[in-house]
Structures are given as structure tokens and as C-alpha cells.
Design goal:
Oligomer: single chain
Number of helices: 5
Number of domains: 1
Largest sheet: 6 strands, antiparallel
CATH architecture: Roll
Number of strands: 6
CATH class: Alpha Beta
Strand content: 25-35%
CATH topology: Thiol Ester Dehydrase, Chain A
Order of helices and strands: HHHEEHEEHEE
Distance between the termini: 28 Å
Shape: globular
Structural class: alpha+beta
CATH superfamily: Hotdog Thioesterase
Amino acid sequence: MLSEKQIKFQSDFLSPLKQKLFYLKDLPMGLIAGIRLIQLDESVCVTEVPFRWRNKNPFRSIYFAVQSMAAELSTAAPVLLVLKGLEANIAYIIVDLKVTFVKKAQSKITFTCTDYGNILDALSSLRHPDDNAEVTLKTVGRDAQGEEVAVFHFTWSFKVRSC
């Protein structure tokens, strides 16, 4: 069950205007690339990135860095949602990334992450200053026809900050 703080964060992040303001302030390349957060809840996070001239490479597909931004957001948004429900001061960073590109990304790509429970499990072990934990989150990118394009594994590291 989400707390009031988490529900407000969820609502704000899913608002198209507030999402664009967030990108403008904190993730300007996401705004330029047209990345959008479509769904964020306790079961799934979905992002999408359009196929357009700004995002493509010389091989007529979406540039891997653009795909990586959208994929990262699909794991970062649930991390932020979980952290909004905690009272602890926790630092977090991506420490590893593994990706498999299955086919060319030549249409809108949708990334889906269903690892919310894994984030909760990892963060529930953090209790004392300097405690740390890691969790690897999987997100799958599919094209407009529903075919798998890429599979990303982001390893997030968390550490309780000492006051």
C-alpha cells in the first residue's frame, strides 16, 4: 500500500506537465529525446521513447544511449517511488549495467520493469547508517509490434547516509 507521499509523487510524475518540468530541470536530454513515463505503480513501470530523427543513429535505428535513458527511467521511477515511502536518508547510484540488443529499434520502444518487489526487499534490509544493499532490476524494451528489442539489467546500489 502506497503512502500519501508516494501517491503524490506518483501523481506528479505521471502528470504530463510536471513530467516535462522534471525533465527540463533534472533530465534535459530526456525531454529532447521525447521520453515519457506512461505507468508507475507497485506492479509495473512503463516508459516509452519515440523513433524520430533526433533519436536515430546512422544505421536507421534508435541510438543505444537514447534507449538506455528510457530503460533507466523505467527502473529509476520505481526506485524513487519506494524511497518516497521511507524516512531514511538513502544515497543511490547505478553501479552496473548489462544489456542485450535483440534487434534494431526502428519504431517507438516501450520499456517495462516489474521488479518493484525486489526494490522493497533490498531496501528493507537497510536499517543503520552505512548499511548498504544492491538490487539488479530488469527492464524489457519492445517495439510497436510487441517484439523484444533490448533487455537491460541495471544494478542499483543503496547506502544509508550517516547524519
